[in-house]
Amino acid sequence: MIELSGVEKKLGDFALKDISLQLPKGYIMGLIGANGAGKTTLLHIILGLYRADKGDVRIFGCKPDIDEVKVRGEIGWVLAEELFHSGFTLQENAQFYGKYYLNYSRALFEDYCERFGLKPDKKLKEHSKGEKLKFQFAFAMSHQPKLLLLDEPTASFDPEFRAEFLRIITRFVSDGEHSVILATHLTKDLDRIADYIAMLDAGRLIFHLERTQLEDRYRLVAGEEYKIKCLPADQVIAMESGEYGARAFVKYNQRFVYDSELAVSVPNLEDIMFYLLKKEKQPGRW
Amino acid sequence: MLYMVLDDFRRNFKYGVKRMFERFENWYLFFCMLIFPPILFHTSIHKCFIYYFSFIPMLGALLLSRMYGGWMEKTLFLCPLGKKDREKYYLISWGIRTASAVFLFLLLNGILFIAGWLHPLAFILMFILMAFYSAAVNLYCGGAKRENGMLEQKRVLPENYETWNVVGQILGLGAMVVLVVVLGDAEKSKITTWEFIIVSVFLFANILIQIKIIKCFRFIMDYVTQFEQSLKYEPKKHGGQNI
Q1: Half-sphere CA count of B80, side-chain side, radius 13 A
Q2: pLDDT digits over A234-279, tens only?
Q3: Are A221 and A253 within 8 A, CB to CB?
Q4: Domain residue spans in chain B?
Q5: A192 and B CB contact within 8 Å
Q6: What is the pLDDT of residues B130-146, one digit of tens each?
Q7: Which residue of B has its CA nearest to A103?
Q8: From residue B140, how far is each of B90, B137, B161, B215 by CA, in Å?
Q9: Which of B11, B83, B152 lies nearest to residue A12, judging by beta carbons?
Q10: Residues of B in contact with A12 (CB under 8 A)
Q11: Mean pLDDT value across residues A206-216
Q12: Which of B28, B35, B42, B196 is most buried by its number of CB atoms within 10 A?
C-alpha cells in the first residue's frame, strides 16, 4: 500500500535522509522517534503536502503529489494540530469538508460522534484538545478511507477512549484491505497493536522491522556491573549503571550463552527507543 | 465550484473580518483618511457623490483582498482537491472579489451617470481604472517571502512585487481622485489640453503598474495553491495552522 524508496527531503536546517520503507495492506505500522525526528515530515510527504527532493513515494501505487485527488481521497488523517474551522460546529465542519470526499457519509459521521461522546452541534472551539482530535478521527473514519495516518493522537485521549481507539484501528485493518500508520511516543500502544515498527532519529531511518523481528533482535541484560562489562563489546549497544547494578541493551545472539546470574529480558518498544537514541547521542561510550 | 466558493465566502465572513483587522497596516489608515477631503475642502455635492461612489468600491476591493485573498486553509490541502481544482478555486475566488468591487462601482456610478451627474468620459475612464485596480489588488497574497521555522526563507515571487503592490494601491486611489477632480463635473462641455494630459498620465501610469502586478498572477497562483509555498499566516485567534 505504501512504498517509500530512498526518499530525501530538506526543510531548512532539517533533512530526511534515505528513507525506505513499505507497508502492505492489512497492517499497522508504528512510527516512533524523538521530537523533531521527522515523523510529521514523513507523514506530510505521504499526504502529498511536501514533494520529496529525491526518491520515490508510492501510495496505492500512485505518486501522492501527482495523483493527489486519488491518494488523498483514500487517506484519513488525524494530525496533532488545529485544523478545521474553530467557529463552526462539528457537523458544519464535517459537511464543509466532507463534500470533497466521494465516500463521505453523514450518517457514519454522526454515528462516530455518538460513540466518541461528541456533540455535532457544538462549535469546535468549545471542545477540549482531546475532543478536537476525536472529531478529526470521527471525520477521518466517516469518509471510509483505505489508509489512516495518525500523528500523535493518543496522548490527548483518556484511557477509556484510548482503548476504544485501539480497538477501532485494529478492527479497521482486520479485513486485510486497510492499513494504518500511527506516529506516537506512547510505545505501549504500539506494543499491543503494531505489526511493523519504523524508528526515525534526526531524519534518518534507524530501523524498519516487523514487530516479531524486533523482539528477536535485541535483549536487555541486567546484573552486576562487572558482569555486564564482560559482555562482548560488539554486542553491546548501550549501557547504563546505577547503585544496584548495571543494564545493557544488546544485540541478541542466539548462540551466545549469558551468565546465569544475569537477567535477560525482551525489551519493549520504549526500552528499544530509549537505548537506541542513547546510543546515537553517546556513541562509543561502552 | 462557484457555489462552493460563494458558500466558503459566506461561512468564512467572520474570519475574513478578523483576518482583515489582524493584517491592519499603516496605509489602511491612510486610505480611510481619504474619506474626509471632500468634507474638508467644501467640494460640491455632485463631486462629493462621485468621489465617495468611486472611493468606496476601491476600498471595498482592498478589503475583500485582505479578507479572502492569498490564503488557503491547510485543511483544504488535506482534502482530495487536485492542483487544477485548487487553481480553479483560486481563480473563481479572485474573479468574484474583483467582479464584486467593479459591480459595486458600476452600480453606484451608473446611478450618477443616469442622473446626469457624471461626465461620460469620466465614467468610462474611471471604470477602466477601477477594473485594473480591483484585478491587481485582489491578487494579494501576503508577501513575497516565506518565513517559518521549517521552510527556508526564499523569494518565491518576482522581485519588487511588494513594492509595486504598495505603489499600485496608492497610485490607484490617487488616479481616481485626479479623475474625479478633473473630469467629474458632468456640466463640463470641453476638456482642456492640460486636463487631458494630467488625466492621461495618471491613468496610463496606473494601468501600467497594475498590469505589472497582474503579470505576477501565475507565480501568485502557484504560491497560494501549493502547500509548500503557501501562506502560513493564520489569524491569531483562529485555529492556527502549523506546518
Answers
A1: 19
A2: 888 888 888 888 888 988 888 888 888 889 998 888 888 888 887 6
A3: no
A4: 2-141+156-229
A5: no
A6: 999 898 888 876 544 44
A7: B80
A8: 12, 6, 10, 13
A9: B152
A10: 149-152
A11: 87
A12: B28
Q: What ipTM did this prediction achieve?
A: 0.84
B chain contacts of residue A84, beta-carbon cutoff 8 Å = 75, 239
Sheet order of strands, A54-59 included: A54-59, A2-11, A14-23, A204-210, A196-201, A28-33, A179-183, A147-151, A75-78
The span from the CA of B89 to the CA of B70, in Å, is 12
Report the C-alpha gap between B235 and A84 in whole angstroms: 13
Q: Give A246→chain B minimum CA distance, Å.
A: 40
Chain B interface residues facing chain A, Cβ-Cβ under 8 Å? 4, 8, 11-12, 14-15, 73-83, 85, 149-152, 227-228, 238-242
Chain centre to alpha carbon of residue A249: 23
Give the position of cell 478578523. Answer: B18
Question: What is the C-alpha to C-alpha distance for residues A267 and B216, in angstroms, rounded to an integer?
Answer: 58
Question: What angle separates helix A90-98 from helix B2-11, to the nearest 10 degrees?
Answer: 160
Q: Do A125 and B85 touch (CB under 8 A)?
A: no
